[in-house]
Design brief:
By secondary structure, the protein is an alpha+beta fold. Helices cover 18% and strands 34% of the residues. β6 and β7 form a beta hairpin. It is elongated and about 75 Å long.
Length: 239
Amino acid sequence: MAFAAQFAGVYLNFSPDDADSRSRKLAAFLPDASDPQMGWDGFGKLSAVAIQAYDVEVGDDQNAVVSVAFQSGPRRMMLSVPVYYSGDEGGRRFVVSGRPAILPAPAPAELPQIAPPETDDAAAAELKPQLEGFFKDYASGEAAGLQRYVAAGKSLPSFGGTFTFAELKKVVVPVGGATREIQAVVVWVVPNGDAPPTPNATDPAAVGARLEQAYRLTVEKQGDKWFVADIRGAGRVVD
């Protein structure tokens, strides 16, 4: 699969300015006496990014068709690459055995609705100020401040100033006991390089980006306060 993805990175990117370079690179993937441009007539341009091996259809021990996903402009597409494998006696080598084919990528899957959980609004109200303080120090990396919000016996790494906390946009707290799995949607400010924040700037590139992220946290109630025991990606957040 890696061989087909590497081939796709060369095959799917061409322009007249780099035709000679492309043909030399393609030679590493093709049988002897192959068309050096693999079917391209030398005109026009194509560019592809986000190239990843996607699937393999095995024909036999030595032949397969590898599907490679890629992005070209606004379109997500697939490249089908026939590949031959020489086997142990042939030195475990690969070669592109025929013409590739570009195909439309599958449409996104239909996402089914899920029932929201029964929520505990009182616990959410208790948790919100704690979580706001936690995420502020989680972003800044202020270790002593962060530890005030972390459950006893636990320690968590931080972003160390990579982001700035902007807003706790949503908290979903299911009913339960003293330990619960909750969801939080947080808005970070992504710094604009070394430039100071300029929220009133007219140039969008001069303003730090706001980025919503969803987290799943394990929280524990110790005494009359909630503390964070663990944090990870939320997966699908209930709306």
